[in-house]
Amino acid sequence: MRTNSSDGSPKLEFLKSITPQSSESEVEHKIIVPLLQWLGYGSADWRSQVSFGNSKLDFLVYPEEFKLHCPPFLVIEVKAPNKSINQNGWQINRYMRKVGAMLGLLTNGSSFQLLCRHQDQIVTIADYSTTELVKDSRLFRSLLCKSTCLKVCNAILHNQQRINQKFLTLVAEAFDNQSIHCLFKERHLEQHASILQEESNVIQRRKEAMIITVFNNKGGVGKTTLTINLAASLAKLGKRVLLIDIDAQANLTTGLGIDPLNDVELARKKDITHLLIDPRIKLEDVIYTKRWSQNDLQLDIIPSHIRLSRMESDLTRMVDSDRVLVKKLKNHSYDFIFIDPPPSFGKVNSISLMASNGILVPTQLSSYPIRALEYVLTQAQDVGAYKDDPLPILGVAISMYDQRSNSFNLSMLEKLKDILEKTDGGKQVNIFPEKTWIPRLNIVSQCPEKGYPIQEAEFDDHLSTQEREAAQKALERYDHLAAHLIDSI
Ligand SMILES: Nc1ncnc2c1ncn2[C@@H]1O[C@H](COP(=O)(O)OP(=O)(O)OP(=O)(O)O)[C@@H](O)[C@H]1O
Ligand SMILES: [Mg+2]
What we know:
Layout: H1 24-38, E1 46-52, E2 55-61, E3 74-78, H2 89-99, E4 103-107, E5 111-118, E6 121-129, H3 130-135, H4 138-144, H5 146-175, H6 178-181, H7 186-207, E7 210-214, H8 223-236, E8 241-245, H9 251-255, H10 260-265, H11 272-277, E9 288-292, E10 297-302, H12 308-317, H13 324-328, E11 336-340, H14 347-355, E12 358-363, H15 367-386, E13 393-398, H16 406-422, H17 442-450, H18 465-487
Parallel strand pairs: 3-4, 7-11, 7-12, 8-10, 8-11, 12-13
Antiparallel strand pairs: 1-2, 2-3, 4-5, 5-6, 9-10
Helix pairs in contact: 5-7, 8-18, 15-16
The chain binds adenosine-5'-triphosphate and magnesium ion (MG).
């Protein structure tokens, strides 16, 4: 069992696993690899022994999703414990300048030097001994951890998109200029113009918020669980996410550790029923912010309450009731809003779909949930026909698959493709790839009881090493799903 250090973060016990006689490679394996894990990085986020001219960089931290857009976040240079790091700074300075890394960490396993790059200047930020780090690692951790890295990369990406957009506007204006027209042959112009149009459409679409109903009328296929953990993965990518629980079961609410009675009703807070029924209630009046400090994770949620089940008839009587949520979601600053409806197809489902501009369909790889997809597609089309904007199905996400039944999974996958092929509007629907599939894992089903998303499991001292490893596996899948969802919009 892990214990916490005085600053509340998990103890860095592994820092004590080397001796002055240890080799450089031992420092890499016993200190750096666990350190990266402790900072929240998965194995896909870093490379070791990266060839660089005639030499090799010991570690390059480079989250997969930003590889093409941002410089590496962190370079780590490792020395053997019997070498002083003060005499070896030139090498990491050179690497940081060459690869454009923002941060550097130079260590011999017992001394840790943090560096940062400003243009061509490398500045030492702090020096830590093992004892100092074990005693208080808060600043060290919050600077180097994955969530800081993703926030920085996201900011760079946004900035690049802004510059790109400005540049495209200038170029588009320039194309209307007669003297520039002459520089291009007609054919080239057309080609360039359509590429520009496509680029700016992509930017435009990315700027729009996605309001997604996680929809499958089959009960218990993992809608709520997927919604919570996917939202947390997106939040870790720096996206602003709101979750709306529109199911009277309030599973999403309780799954995030909010008790509808104590934390909402008795605390005189508002819930989804107020938002739907009372025209004076605005979106910001019903949002509950849930924070997990260990993980620097935050999710906004509109909680639900059992009384929603008694409101269905009131909702039905309301004028233009299907559009009640559309109106309330007009002004907000979220990148993603996920709506978690109940399984049956009642009033709140049509309210959710009407308010959405995309549908995400979770399913298990088994017969009944797959058959239910026919109905899901039909409903999506029916509601879509009443809407001003399109209501695309962003993809089918596989949940709770059995890792031991490969041939069964493949046969179910074929069946799923078959149903999509045969159903109206199903041909264009994308099934998210295998690396996004969420296996059936005990640790995933335990999270609602603990009231946290799977992202928080690594900080839970009550979990065994196996449970934490399983959580890491699930987490990687949700992260991939988040990346694919972003790509699909
Ligand atoms: N990947 C998983 N591994 C193991 N258990 C899971 C997984 N995903 C979900 N579960 C469990 O399956 C059950 C149903 O999941 P969930 O509540 O998310 O489904 P749902 O589709 O939202 O259900 P409902 O239709 O009632 O709203 C829950 O007990 C949940 O903990
Ligand atoms: Mg549910």
